[in-house]
């Protein structure tokens, strides 16, 4: 996997290569990183595959803002999560397989924030009820 900022090959590292103070719970987490660019992305615990594309600080901030809007809509219900991401993919015109926050660029993050602002947890619970 390549760094989208400089084209160098990203390396797999532990959290202590990225954080001065490793946040609790991330001690064993692996990341793909470009150290010269200060760009990184987490990996899936099971597969070790990257969760998305490497991100520098401004994009990381935007991605965490998207999560701050979206996560309360579904957590901790995995089925609700599917409904939320499916709706978001429809509203953003993305294929569901491309609708992952860790894959978003800055414009997509801004768009997702604009869209998710209109979402309510209740609307997805309602949808879930209808499908039962
Ligand atoms: Zn780089």
Query: Can you count the beta strands?
Result: 3
- The DSSP helix count reads 4
Strand order of the largest sheet: 1-2-3
Q: Helices and strands: which structural class? A: mainly alpha
Strand content: 5-15%
Shape: globular
What is Rg? 16 Å
One letter per element, helices H and strands E, the order comes to EEEHHHH
Helix content: 40-55%
Number of domains as seen in the coordinates: 2
Mean pLDDT: 96
Spell out which ligands are present.
zinc ion
End-to-end C-alpha gap: 41 Å
What does the main sheet amount to?
3 strands, antiparallel
Which regions have little confidence, pLDDT < 50, spanning 5+ residues? none
What would your notes on this structure say?
The protein is mainly alpha-helical. It folds into two domains: 1-54, no CATH class; 57-131. Helix content is 42%, strand content 10%. The chain has four helices and three strands, in the order E-E-E-H-H-H-H. It has a three-stranded antiparallel β-sheet, with no helix packed on it. It binds zinc ion. Zinc ion is lined by residues 3, 5-6, 8, 34, 36-37, 39.
What is the fold's blueprint, element by element?
Layout: E1 11-14, E2 30-34, E3 39-42, H1 57-74, H2 78-92, H3 106-116, H4 121-131
Antiparallel strand pairs: 1-2, 2-3
The structure holds zinc ion.
């Amino acid at each position: 996997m390549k760094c989208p900022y400089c084209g160098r090959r990203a390396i797999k590292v532990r959290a202590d290569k990225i954080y001065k103070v490793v946040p609790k719970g991330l001690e064993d987490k692996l990341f793909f990183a470009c150290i010269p660019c200060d760009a990184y992305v987490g990996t899936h615990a099971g597969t070790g595959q990257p969760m998305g594309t490497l991100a520098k600080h401004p994009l990381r901030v935007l991605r965490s803002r998207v999560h701050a809007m979206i996560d309360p809509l579904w957590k901790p219900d995995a089925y609700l999560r599917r409904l939320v991401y499916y709706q978001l993919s429809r509203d953003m015109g993305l294929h569901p397989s491309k609708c992952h926050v860790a894959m978003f660029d800055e414009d997509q993050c801004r768009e997702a924030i604009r869209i998710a602002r209109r979402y309510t947890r209740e609307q997805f619970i309602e949808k879930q009820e209808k499908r039962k």
